[in-house]
Specification:
This protein has 269 residues and is an alpha+beta fold. It is built from 6 helices and 13 strands.
Length: 269
């Protein structure tokens, strides 16, 4: 089996959440994959990881009231002929058939989506919706009545201030057929903000038989797109992991990340 995980932190202590989750979740999820009810076991693993993260933050005296992390996980199980795409938040995973170019993707959790909106509003949360001029997508944020903390996703680890208002760590789990020649790409929202899953998959297939494409190259492409769309003023964190099924020439290299800073008038504050 092949497993991969990307955690994208946000808030003052988001990096601590993401680091801890990347260490703890793979073990919990590996056990879940051996369960008779894999989907249920994965959801239980996420709940356990949230509980342990809260304990870890308390023991080490850092706050996750306004900090947390999105997580995406993918698993290839060739002995069963299936793959699992698991998401919590706005990071994404895609798995593509190297032979045909078709792909499946994980679910992204936006507060304005019908199911997410219903849960949040029933819990007393508020949703702020906007359409930034530089983007073609809707941006929605979850907040409380005082609007002092706003979260640009409807599911996440941590973010305890918004947990009573409908934000949850419970993931979406997709079980899909595993192609005989499969490649998975996992990325933070910074990777997919201006490159759709279809475009990312297209980049992979353009390079099949020509040495493949690395995670570093996809991160560099995403950074250039951010520069074009944001006028060089801002680039989000960009993380990418690629792995393939056995028998497929490696497309990967090392995982890649980019941690940006806000640029104002050409200066880094």
């Amino acid at each position: 089996r092949s497993l991969g995980i990307v955690a994208d932190g946000h808030g003052e202590n988001g990096h601590r959440c993401a680091t801890w989750l990347c260490k703890r979740l793979p073990g919990l999820l590996s056990q879940a994959l051996d369960s008779a009810d894999v989907s249920g076991a994965i959801k239980a693993a996420f709940a356990e990881a949230e509980r342990e993260l809260e304990e870890f933050a308390s023991e080490h005296r850092f706050s996750i009231q306004r900090s947390g992390a999105a997580v995406v996980f993918a698993a290839m199980l060739p002995d069963q002929g299936v793959a699992y795409l698991v998401s919590c938040g706005d990071s994404q995973a895609v798995i593509t058939d190297i032979a045909s170019g078709t792909f499946q993707s994980s679910r992204v959790h936006h507060a304005h989506d019908t199911v997410e909106q219903k849960r949040i509003m029933e819990a007393g949360g508020l949703i702020k919706v906007s359409r930034p001029r530089c983007r073609n997508s809707i941006l929605s944020r979850v907040c409380g009545p005082d609007k002092s903390y706003q979260l640009a996703m409807s599911r996440s680890f941590g973010d305890l201030r918004l947990k009573p208002l409908g934000v949850t760590e419970q993931p979406s789990v997709r079980k899909v057929p595993l192609p005989s020649r499969a490649c998975a790409v996992l990325g933070s929202d910074g990777l997919f903000e201006f490159m759709s899953p279809a475009e990312v998959v297209g980049k992979i297939h353009q390079r099949v038989g020509r040495g493949g494409i690395s995670a570093q190259e996809l991160v560099a492409m995403a950074r250039r797109r951010w520069d074009q769309e944001e006028g060089g003023l801002y680039c989000d964190d960009v993380s990418c992991l690629i792995f393939c099924s056995s028998g497929v020439a490696s497309q990967t290299g090392a995982p890649a990340t980019y941690s940006p800073s806000l640029v104002l008038n050409g200066l880094n504050p």
